[in-house]
């Protein structure tokens, strides 16, 4: 059936009957500014569909060819696209709420300044798609192809993009807040000044990455790998760094007040001048670590172990070193007012729990 045989009156008639549009060619049909509600399109061809400024509510697209369709400035709510072809499509300035894209080709699509909320991209092809200045709020992208994805100046607000390889993604000016990015790869990337506040970055790889001045406050970096990473003057206040690995790291001037480094492994790390008030290093392993001139008031190093640890001119007022086992520790000119050492009664009380810990 040709486009000339299908009019908007025909579409409205099928809607009233509760029947889907099936196997038709809508090429040339102009949907600019139209409202479509509770419509099903199955195996429909609508290349270059003109839907700019339209309003789509609970519209379902299945096995449709919508190459280079224009959804610019459109408003979509409760819509779904399954096994559809949408390469080169335009979504610039569009607003999407509770929409789903499954097994859909969105390669080279444009999403500049789009606002996407409570939506999901599942096994979608997003290679070369551009989300510059877009906002993704509580939106999920899983098992997607992301090579060449553009997230420059985008905002990820509680978005979920797990186990992604960000090395091929443009993240310049990205702002991520409470986003789920665990298991992702950032190795070798320039992430200076990036905002990753409260993000879940468990087991993420930051080997050879530059994170100078980055904002990772309250982020969860449990078991993250930071090898040959630069973190100069980065912000890690109240971050969770449990069991993280730090090898050959320059973190001079790091802000990490209240950060939890429990059971972390640090080797050849510079934390000179760090602002680490109230940080926790219990059970951490520290080898050749420099805390020179760091502020470590009320910090806790209980049961930590290691060697060649330097606290020259550091502020250790009220710090706790209960059962700390450091070989070759240098505290020259350190401020140690009310610094606490090992408590024998406490150590006796902890003996059974310590014996049960895995070496």
Summarize it:
The protein is mainly beta.
Describe the fold and architecture.
With 359 residues, the chain is mainly beta. It folds into 3 domains: 1-130 and 139-145, 3 Solenoid (Pectate Lyase C-like); 150-248, E3 ubiquitin-protein ligase SopA (Pectate Lyase C-like), CATH 2.160.20.80; 251-359, 3 Solenoid (Pectate Lyase C-like). It contains 2 helices and 22 strands. It has helices at residues 8-17, 344-356, and strands spanning 21-22, 35-37, 40-42, 55-57, 60-62, 75-77, 80-82, 95-97, 100-102, 115-117, 120-122, 135-137, 140-142, 155-157, 175-177, 195-197, 225-227, 245-250, 265-270, 285-290, 305-310, 325-330. The strands form 3 sheets. A 9-stranded parallel β-sheet has the order 2-4-6-8-10-12-14-15-16, with no helix packed on it. The protein has a 7-stranded parallel β-sheet with strand order 1-3-5-7-9-11-13, with no helix packed on it. The protein starts with 7 loop residues before the first helix and ends with a helix. The model has no long low-confidence stretch (mean pLDDT 94).
Key attributes of the depicted protein:
359 residues; Pectate Lyase C-like; 3 domains; seven-stranded parallel beta sheet; elongated
Question: How is this fold's topology laid out?
Answer:
Layout: H1 8-17, E1 21-22, E2 35-37, E3 40-42, E4 55-57, E5 60-62, E6 75-77, E7 80-82, E8 95-97, E9 100-102, E10 115-117, E11 120-122, E12 135-137, E13 140-142, E14 155-157, E15 175-177, E16 195-197, E17 225-227, E18 245-250, E19 265-270, E20 285-290, E21 305-310, E22 325-330, H2 344-356
Parallel strand pairs: 1-3, 2-4, 3-5, 4-6, 5-7, 6-8, 7-9, 8-10, 9-11, 10-12, 11-13, 12-14, 14-15, 15-16, 17-18, 18-19, 19-20, 20-21, 21-22
């Amino acid at each position: 059936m040709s486009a000339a045989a299908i009019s908007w009156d025909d579409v409205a008639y099928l809607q009233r009957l509760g029947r889907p549009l099936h196997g038709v060619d809508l090429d040339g049909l102009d949907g600019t500014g139209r409202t479509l509600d509770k419509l099903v399109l199955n195996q429909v061809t609508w290349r270059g569909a003109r839907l700019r400024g339209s309003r789509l509510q609970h519209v379902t697209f299945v096995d449709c060819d919508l190459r280079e369709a224009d959804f610019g400035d459109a408003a979509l709510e409760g819509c779904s696209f399954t096994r559809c072809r949408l390469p080169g499509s335009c979504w610039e300035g569009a607003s999407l709420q509770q929409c789903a894209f499954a097994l859909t080709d969105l390669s080279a699509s444009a999403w500049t300044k789009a606002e996407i909320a409570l939506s999901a991209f599942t096994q979608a092809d997003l290679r070369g798609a551009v989300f510059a200045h877009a906002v993704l709020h509580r939106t999920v992208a899983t098992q997607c192809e992301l090579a060449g994805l553009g997230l420059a100046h985008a905002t990820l607000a509680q978005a979920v993009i797990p186990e992604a390889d960000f090395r091929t993604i443009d993240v310049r000016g990205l702002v991520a807040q409470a986003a789920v990015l665990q298991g992702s790869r950032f190795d070798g990337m320039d992430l200076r000044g990036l905002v990753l506040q409260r993000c879940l970055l468990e087991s993420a790889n930051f080997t050879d990455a530059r994170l100078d001045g980055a904002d990772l406050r309250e982020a969860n970096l449990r078991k993250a790998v930071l090898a040959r990473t630069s973190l100069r003057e980065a912000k890690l206040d109240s971050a969770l760094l449990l069991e993280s690995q730090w090898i050959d790291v320059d973190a001079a001037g790091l802000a990490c007040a209240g950060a939890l480094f429990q059971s972390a492994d640090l080797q050849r790390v510079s934390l000179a001048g760090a602002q680490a008030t109230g940080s926790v290093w219990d059970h951490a392993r520290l080898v050749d670590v420099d805390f020179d001139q760091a502020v470590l008031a009320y910090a806790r190093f209980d049961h930590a172990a290691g060697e060649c640890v330097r606290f020259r001119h550091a502020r250790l007022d009220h710090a706790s070193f209960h059962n700390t086992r450091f070989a070759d520790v240098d505290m020259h000119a350190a401020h140690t007012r009310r610094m606490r050492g090992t408590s024998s009664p406490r150590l006796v009380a902890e003996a059974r729990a310590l014996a049960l810990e895995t070496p």
